[in-house]
Design a protein that fits this description.
Layout (H helix, E strand, L loop, with lengths): L5 E5 L10 E6 L5 E7 L30 E6 L4 H13 L4 E5 L2 H5 L22 H7 L9 E5 L4 H15 L7 E4 L4 H7 L6 H18 L3 E2 L1 E4 L1 H5 L4 H21 L4 H4 L3 E7 L3 H22 L5 H4 L3 E5 L11 H15 L4 E3 L12 H17 L13 H23 L3 H7 L1 H19 L26 H15 L3 H16 L5 H9 L4 H12 L9
Parallel strand pairs: 4-5, 4-12, 5-6, 6-7, 7-8, 9-10, 10-11, 11-12
Antiparallel strand pairs: 1-2, 2-3
Helix pairs in contact: 1-3, 4-19, 8-10, 8-14, 10-12, 10-14, 12-13, 18-19, 18-20
Length: about 550
């Protein structure tokens, strides 16, 4: 296995189909822990952990050398309130931050825009300017923490703001670690927080790829997301297929823009859902890894093994949480998190028990984090690499999911790729049909949901819910007004003019966006400047 810390011992086969190969991990204290089981010659398409096609995981040692990043998603109200929550989570053992932004920030509107009324700070933190970003990460050293930002249409601006804070902290960009979701294609498919037409959005995304390759080498420039596809009602096979098809489109666009595949592919990452069917979910992650490895090597000719490996973050399924009997959600989340861990995720967020009713309280967020910590410390599953490999059920499910997903990718290809398929409404229609079938099954009782259509009771929902103060919006608008009044208006105009000129040409947009935010141009003003060049996407009606 290429690691002198391992020693192998071949035992007599236990079955004709799976002769047993055992490898032992020697801890620093001399304790021997059996870690890896499997045949001397693994079945075709399975391989060993850390070896192509990575069905059994991208690292030979699994979690033995390093646990997954426990990255709790948080953000609400003002930057100051979210900063307090981040500091709390870090004090409780979170190993990475994950930022939730409010809808105006996601859609490219400042807090004082008419479209922002009633939404400021509600489902995430409101970020309008460098001033807000500075407060959001006050006291959090950006060279010590990895930050994931769930942001898409305005990802370039949020990354620019983050790098601006890094400069103010004296942190070199080469030391900055984290991820921007930056996956706009899935917004057209499943979520809706897009701004520009798809082809303009692809230009911005590939500019980020090129910029970070040179300037921010440790930054993950995109997290290609199946999470929201699954939340919209897709099947597991559709989640794999449409996520990887999006990934193919991003790689195609970057190569067409002149980037070498091995220069950017190692920084691609993915984001998957963890749903209720534990064994199917484990098989889903295994199938996705195998498919992506083959796509990158065989379809795109990538030479580096780092380009072949599918690295992914997982979040437990928000759509499975119920307002009825909210304590049941603790069990759901634990099972979903277990599936993610046994499936080999690199990073994990666990949802909170009360999220079907409100943003999570501090107590429920802590319990969600403890769920991950319990799995890591007490379940024992992290001691084994791909612990369910060799299971007849898991291997069959892996093969079936790969076959079903490949058929859908081939259908997307036949339609001219994912951008063309989205414009024709194909993935949207497939997901809507799957969601409808699921809802019908639940309404009929064929698909049981405990506490909803079976095992119901008259228990009352909790009353200790987190409530975002309605005055937050007014306070945020007041701060933004003072910020705009105190800046140098000529510098704002010049920076916006330079950005718009670059948008009409071929310059990389990222240096111009960074210059704009440092010149105190707001997020909404940057989005409006690009709207004037690219226009806004109008959703097509899918029937």
């Amino acid at each position: 296995m290429g690691n002198d810390r391992w020693k192998a011992e071949t035992l007599a086969p236990t079955t004709d189909r799976f002769p047993l190969r055992k490898q032992e991990f020697v801890r620093s204290g001399g304790e021997v822990l059996e870690d890896l089981y499997g045949p001397d010659v693994p079945p075709e398409g399975v391989g060993f952990p850390g070896e192509f096609p990575y069905t059994r995981g991208i690292r030979a040692t699994g979690y033995r050398g390093r646990l997954w990043t426990m990255r709790q998603y948080a953000g609400f109200g003002t930057a100051a309130e979210s900063n307090a929550r981040y500091r709390y989570l870090l004090s409780q053992g979170t190993s990475g931050l994950s930022v939730a932004f409010d809808l105006p920030t996601q859609m490219g509107f400042d807090s004082d825009h008419e479209n922002s009324i009633g939404e400021v700070g509600k489902v995430g933190v409101a970020i309008d300017s460098m001033e807000d970003m500075r407060v959001l990460f006050d006291g959090i050293p950006l060279d010590k923490v990895s930050t994931s930002m769930t942001i898409n249409a305005t990802a370039s601006t949020l990354l620019a703001l983050y790098l601006g804070v890094a400069d103010e902290q004296g942190v070199p960009w080469t030391s900055v670690r984290g991820t921007i979701q930056n996956d706009v294609l899935k917004e057209y498919i499943a979520r809706g927080t897009y701004i520009y037409p798809p082809r303009a959005s692809m230009r911005i995304i590939t500019d980020i790829f090129g910029f970070c390759r040179e300037k921010v080498p440790r930054w993950n420039t995109i997290s290609i997301s199946g999470y929201h596809i699954r939340e919209a009602g897709s099947t597991a096979a559709q989640e794999i297929a449409f996520t990887l098809a999006d990934g193919i489109s991003y790689v195609d666009a970057a190569v067409s823009a002149g980037l070498e595949v091995d220069d950017f592919a190692p920084r691609l990452s993915f984001f998957f859902n963890a749903h209720n069917n534990l064994l199917e979910e484990v098989a889903k992650y295994r199938a996705a890894r195998r498919m992506w490895a083959r796509i990158m090597r065989d379809r795109f000719g990538a030479k580096s093994p780092k380009s072949w490996t599918l690295r992914f973050h997982t979040q437990t399924a928000g759509s499975t949480l119920t307002a009825q009997q909210v304590d049941n959600n603790v069990v759901r989340v634990a099972l979903q998190a277990l599936a993610a861990v046994m499936g080999g995720t690199q990073s994990l967020h666990t949802n909170s028990r009360d999220e079907a009713l409100a943003l999570p309280t501090e107590e429920s967020a802590r319990l969600a984090l403890r769920t991950q910590q319990l799995i890591a410390a007490e379940s024992g599953v992290a001691d084994f690499v791909d612990p369910l490999a060799g299971s007849y059920v898991v291997e069959q499910l892996t093969d079936e999911l790969e076959s079903d997903a490949m058929r859908l990718i081939e259908e997307v290809d036949s339609r001219g790729g994912m951008v063309a398929a989205i414009e024709a409404g194909f993935p949207q229609r497939e997901i809507q049909n799957a969601a409808y079938r699921t809802q019908v099954a639940m309404d009929r009782g064929d698909q049981e949901v405990v506490g909803v259509n079976v095992h119901r009771d008259d228990s009352s929902p909790p009353t200790d819910l987190l409530k975002v103060d309605a005055s937050i919006g007014e306070a945020q608008i007041g701060r933004l007004t003072r910020f705009k009044e105190g800046r140098k208006q000529a510098a704002v105009r010049d920076a916006l003019d330079a950005l718009q000129q670059a948008a009409t040409g071929t310059d990389n947009l990222m240096p111009h966006i960074i210059h704009a935010v440092k010149s105190d141009v707001t997020l909404g003003e940057i989005a409006d400047g690009l709207r004037a060049i690219y226009g806004e996407y109008q959703e097509q009606v899918v029937i």
